[in-house]
Design brief:
Oligomer: single chain
Strand content: 25-35%
Shape: elongated
Structural class: alpha/beta
Mean pLDDT: 90
Largest sheet: 6 strands, parallel
Length: about 220
């Protein structure tokens, strides 16, 4: 069972806490505001009221015993920076911190964060990509180069097999799955002889530039 310490129970932190509990993680949730702690208690194993910038309070949590410590603080960035630094000084093995801009990301990494998440930027990129073309239904960015796209199959593919389309050779991208039918209930891993139909939705993985060339987006 993964053990997780979540510091900060605003909308971002509380949603992480609830989701990780659903995945059967052992979650300790912390916030300086009593009402937030009371609200999260029904969803997590344990919760405490406290100031994450207080070294003695953090020490009392035994931060070095958690698999992951997540700094999900809103408000003053200084608090996130101090909390991240203290966690690493106290031996936390893996710290994930939230940033709201590139400058914050840089300083959090300098303070010892093992990973920095940037939800506002990631959401902006996802939405911009999703609505940039009618062909794009959804989008997951894996890193700076590779992404997974949920795409409507292009008309020029209809009635052809994957072997005939040969996107791997032509565009250096791979089709992971196909979702078929108006309700999308039929999902399968396609074979080379799979014939593309006009209601097919394809899940494609590859470098962004290659996917854009293939789908002309």
């Amino acid at each position: 069972m993964t053990t997780v310490l979540i510091l900060g129970l605003g909308e971002f932190g509380s949603n992480i806490a609830k989701r990780m509990s659903e995945f059967k993680c052992e979650v300790m949730a912390v916030d300086i505001k009593e009402e937030r702690v009371d609200d999260i208690l029904p969803f997590v194993g344990s919760a405490r009221i406290g100031d994450s910038t207080n070294e003695e309070f953090l020490r009392s949590l035994g931060v070095n015993s958690y698999d992951v410590c997540i700094v999900a603080l809103g408000g003053l960035f200084q608090s996130s920076l101090e909390t991240t630094n203290l966690l690493k000084e106290l031996g936390a093995p893996f710290v994930v911190s939230r940033a709201t801009n590139d400058v914050q990301m840089k300083f959090l990494k300098m303070s010892g964060a093992d990973e920095v998440v940037y939800p506002e930027k990631q959401t902006a990129i996802r939405l911009a990509t999703k609505y940039a073309s009618e062909s794009i239904l959804d989008f997951i960015q894996l890193d700076n180069n590779y992404s997974i796209y949920e795409m409507k199959a292009p008309k020029e593919w209809f009635g052809k097999t994957l072997a005939q389309i040969d996107i791997r050779k032509k565009f250096k991208i791979n089709m992971l799955t196909i979702k078929r039918g108006n309700d999308g209930n039929e999902v399968f891993i396609p074979a080379h002889d799979t014939v593309i139909q006009n209601d097919d939705v394809a899940f494609i993985i590859g470098e962004v530039q290659d996917i854009r060339k293939c789908f002309k987006v």
